[in-house]
Design a protein that fits this description.
The chain is built from eight helices and nine strands. It is α+β, with helices and mostly antiparallel strands. It folds into two domains: 194 residues, Cathepsin D, subunit A, domain 1 (Beta Barrel); 133 residues. A hairpin with a 5-residue loop joins strand 4 and strand 5. The two termini are 33 Å apart.
Length: 347
C-alpha cells in the first residue's frame, strides 16, 4: 500500500501550464480524464464481455459448421437416392427409345396403338427425369445458399467481435499509458487540489463540479474493489461536512487522510509532527500527524480524532479507516450488505 510516485507527465494531460489555466479549464480537463478512463463500462467488465463475445463467436462457428456438415450429408443422401431413381428411369427410357426406333406400318392399327402408348410413356418418364433433375438442382442451390448465409454471417460476426476487441484493447492500452508511472494518482491529486481551490475561492458551481467528480471516482473505487475477488472495502464517510472515501483497514493503527482533502476542510498540516503508523500486514508508513474535528462513519461519529496525513493510495480513495476510529466501537463487517460496516459504540 505504499503510495506511488506522482507522474509529472500528467501536468500536460490536465493542462497545468505555466500561465496557470483557470479553475474552469482545469475542471473541464479533469472531467475529460474521468470520461476517458473511469466513466461507463468498467475495463475488466468490457474485457470479460469481449472474451464472452469471442467464445460465443467460436461456438456459433462450430455450430454453423456442424449444421452445414449435417445439411451436406442429407443432401448427399438425397442426391444418391434421386440418382438411383434417375438411373432406373433412364434405363427404361433407353428401352423405350430403342422400341420407338421401330415405327409400325400405318395399316397396323394394333402396332400403331402400342407405338403411341410407348410415346406417351416415354414422355411421362422423360418428365419424371426432368423433374428429378430440377429437384436436384434446387437442393444443391439451397445448400449453396445456406453455405453463403453461414459464410456471410461468420464474416459479419467476426468483424463485430474484432471491432469490439480492438475497442477494448485501445481503452485498456490508453489507461495503462495514462497510469504508467503514477499518472492516475497524479490526476486524483489534481482533483483534490481543485477541491481545495474551489473551496478557497468560494466558487459554488466549481465546488459542486469537483465534488461530483470526486463522488464519481469514489463510487468507481467502491465498485472496482467490490468486483475484485480480494478487493478492499471502501466506505463513504464524512470529514466534517465533506464526503471522503476511506478503505476499511482493521489492521491499520491510524486513520489516514490525503493532505489535499484535509486542506480543503481547513485542517492545517503546519503544526503536525511526523508520525509513523502501521497498516495491515505490519507495514510501517510515515506521515504528518493531524487532528480531525469530526469524522462520521456508518451513522457514528468521533470528534477530535487523531489521524495522519498521507497521499492517496489509489484513485478515488482518500485514505484509511483504522483502529484510531474503530477501537471506540464494536464493529461488524458484512460484505453482502449495502452498508458493509455496522458500528455499535462501546459503553
Amino acid at each position: 500500500m505504499t503510495p506511488r510516485t506522482l507522474a509529472a507527465g500528467l501536468v500536460l494531460v490536465l493542462g497545468l501550464q505555466a500561465q496557470a489555466p483557470s479553475l474552469t479549464v482545469r475542471l473541464a480537463a479533469a472531467d475529460a480524464v474521468v470520461a476517458a478512463h473511469y466513466r461507463g463500462e468498467p475495463r475488466e467488465v468490457a474485457r470479460a464481455r469481449s472474451n464472452s463475445a469471442i467464445e460465443a463467436f467460436n461456438a456459433r462457428a462450430k455450430s454453423a459448421q456442424a449444421e452445414l456438415d449435417a445439411a451436406k450429408a442429407a443432401l448427399d443422401r438425397d442426391l444418391a437416392s434421386a440418382r438411383q431413381v434417375q438411373a432406373s428411369l433412364r434405363e427404361q427410357l433407353k428401352g423405350l427409345d430403342a422400341a420407338l426406333r421401330k415405327v409400325p406400318d400405318g395399316n397396323d392399327q394394333e402396332g400403331n396403338a402400342r407405338y403411341q402408348a410407348r410415346v406417351v410413356e416415354r414422355k411421362h418418364l422423360g418428365g419424371k427425369v426432368n423433374e428429378l433433375v430440377g429437384q436436384e438442382t434446387l437442393a444443391v442451390d439451397g445448400y449453396n445458399a445456406q453455405v453463403r448465409r453461414v459464410q456471410e454471417e461468420q464474416v459479419r460476426l467476426r468483424a463485430e467481435v474484432r471491432v469490439g476487441r480492438e475497442a477494448v484493447d485501445r481503452r485498456v492500452a490508453a489507461f495503462e499509458a495514462f497510469a504508467r508511472g503514477g499518472g492516475d494518482l497524479a490526476f486524483f491529486t489534481e482533483v483534490n487540489h481543485l477541491l481545495v481551490e474551489a473551496r478557497k475561492a468560494g466558487d459554488a458551481p466549481a465546488l459542486a463540479r469537483v465534488r461530483a467528480l470526486r463522488r464519481e471516482l469514489g463510487t468507481w473505487a467502491m465498485a472496482s474493489e467490490a468486483r475484485s475477488p480480494h478487493g478492499l472495502i471502501v466506505l463513504e464517510v464524512r470529514l466534517g461536512e465533506e464526503p471522503v472515501w476511506l478503505v476499511l483497514d482493521t489492521g491499520a493503527s491510524d486513520v489516514v487522510v490525503a493532505p489535499e482533502v484535509l486542506e480543503a476542510t481547513g485542517i492545517s498540516l503546519a503544526v503536525g509532527e511526523d508520525n509513523t503508523f502501521v497498516v495491515v500486514g505490519g507495514q510501517r508508513l510515515r506521515g504528518r500527524a493531524v487532528q480531525l474535528p469530526r469524522l462520521s462513519v456508518a451513522g457514528q461519529a468521533q470528534s477530535d480524532l487523531p489521524a495522519t496525513a498521507v497521499s492517496p493510495f489509489q484513485v478515488g480513495v482518500d485514505g484509511l479507516l483504522g483502529q484510531a476510529f474503530l477501537k471506540g466501537f464494536v464493529y461488524t463487517v458484512d460484505e453482502r450488505r449495502a452498508e458493509k460496516l455496522a458500528l455499535v459504540r462501546k459503553p
